């Protein structure tokens, strides 16, 4: 069966008991999640979301508005879930966390099937300071990307790669700037939050506010790292997500109660 163009399953698992859809950060693509496959148990199939403008969807313009993007992604997910019974979860890193959150709101409004878990990393529910500024010239924009840690040296030194990457990155940061926090009732979906100790974009105090936006908070887990702890601490992060997905009922609530005290090395 052909893999739908909006996600990549690097290792299809037909007997999986849960599908984990992963949304990347600004400027990122599905390849960011390729290393996760070797850390996930056999009962979870990873489905890395391919956003418009990336390879495989390069003929589609990248989204620049978060609500438009969330509606489109929710529609793609709803179509995928139709006729399926396998539960699913959503994970998002930074921009991906924001899109995952707005997707769940869209699905809820439409009466769609909701995820078993919404896992959000490095994006406060009230929004984040948009840096880099997509209105900056190339030199300043590239410098800001590098300062954030989102532009590897090998890419920064390759003019051809930069020419393909910068338009998508600008569109993504424009999308991030379009996010507006809305006071809405708590989601009827379990939410788990993750952040890095040295992340200026999503500090611990901001990430802790996710607790008020769900009826079932599965805790905040803090990892040693910056905005890209998701990349640098992949094995520990995947282990933590897997443990949360295993938990149900009272055990999940007890674990969530102490999770805010945990650090990545102790998970």
Automatic annotation (TrEMBL):
Q: Which domain of life is it from?
A: Bacteria
InterPro entries linked to this entry: AB_hydrolase_fold (IPR029058), TEII (IPR012223), Thioesterase (IPR001031)
User: Which organism is this entry from?
Assistant: Sphaerisporangium album
State the organism's lineage: Bacteria, Bacillati, Actinomycetota, Actinomycetes, Streptosporangiales
Q: What is one process in the GO biological process aspect for this record? A: lipid biosynthetic process
One Pfam family of this chain: Thioesterase
Q: Where do the Thioesterase domain residues begin and end?
A: 19-244
- Protein's recorded name: Thioesterase
Taking the record's annotation, the residue ranges forming a coiled coil are none
Gene3D superfamilies with a match to the protein in the record: alpha/beta hydrolase
Family note: Belongs to the thioesterase family.
